[in-house]
Write a structure and sequence with these properties.
Mean pLDDT: 93
Shape: globular
Number of domains: 1
Strand order of the largest sheet: 5-6-7
Strand content: 5-15%
Helix content: 40-55%
Number of helices: 9
Structural class: mainly alpha
Order of helices and strands: HHEEHHEEHHEEHHHE
């Protein structure tokens, strides 16, 4: 019996050491394609906007951090109430622009709530509440019910946002509570400003060391462009073309000369205030 147990232990150790190198494919959940283009219903994201303005802090290193430790119990309750109100929304009765803002805000609010529920943690990947023996992180866990459907973070990102909008800029909006991720901005998204914010977020991330950096004439980019390469053209050439739309200065000059990407990098440490 000793050998099988040892073999299992070795397997578990090796599996745990495997880095994240791929992401779920986008596969449309058809229910959520339904919408009302004539709808004037606009969910209220004011509470979430106030929460973000209170707890998202600028870091001298050039990224936004969240003061998870500073969130008061009353504000945790306010966040929970906001998420509960969103869950009571008939999303299929919204117009498409309102739906996009709804899902982005819900994803980010749920992520913050998950961190708060398990704080302190060093990384969101330590919150292994997803189903399955080898679960990694919270993304597969069904966290709430909307219109009779149980929904997870993975559902929102990979079965709703990515396939419905087919816009790579969605990756600059949904935040995974990690330093390597595009910033959680200190504003709630609205139907009116989402497109502008996606452009601004893309430019901010790509022109930061977390998005693109040049090291000894080599181009190192975020692993997001590896995991979700299909959203950025499917090839390194496609990724570079995307980056070129927003890059400025030395980054743009280096990308103009690039024939490929030399390396990918990502920091999974928590984006909490130090």
């Amino acid at each position: 019996m000793k050998r099988p147990i040892a073999a299992v232990c070795i397997f578990l150790f090796l599996f745990a050491a495997i880095p994240v190198s791929a992401a779920p494919v986008k596969e449309l959940w058809a229910k959520w394609a339904e919408n009302d283009p004539n709808s004037a219903i606009s969910p209220d994201h004011g509470i979430w906007d106030t929460f973000l303005k209170t707890y998202v802090k600028d870091d001298p290193a050039g990224l936004n951090r969240v003061d998870y430790a500073g969130v008061t119990d009353p504000d945790k309750n306010v966040l929970a109430a906001y998420i509960k109100n969103l869950a009571a929304t008939k999303v299929t009765s919204l117009n498409r622009d309102e739906q996009r803002a709804f899902w982005i805000n819900l994803y980010n609010a749920l992520t913050v709530q998950v961190i708060l529920d398990h704080y302190p943690v060093e990384s969101i990947r330590d919150i292994d509440i997803s189903p399955g023996l080898f679960s990694d992180g919270p993304w597969g866990k069904k966290l709430l019910e909307i219109e009779g459907e149980r929904i997870s973070l993975d559902d929102i990102e990979h079965r709703i946002l990515r396939p419905l909008w087919n816009d790579p800029r969605v990756h600059y909006a949904v935040n995974c509570a990690s330093v390597g991720c595009p910033d959680l901005i200190a504003h709630a998204y609205t139907a009116a400003d989402t497109d502008r914010l996606l452009r601004e977020n893309a430019a901010a991330y790509i022109n930061s060391p977390r998005g693109v950096r040049i090291e000894d004439a080599e181009i190192v980019v975020s692993a997001i462009y590896d995991w979700f390469a299909g959203d950025f053209g499917g090839t390194e050439k496609g990724v570079i073309a995307h980056l070129m739309q927003y890059a400025t200065g030395a980054r743009k000059a280096a990308l103009e000369k690039a024939t490929g990407i030399d390396d990918y990098d990502y920091d999974w440490s928590l984006n909490g205030v130090k």
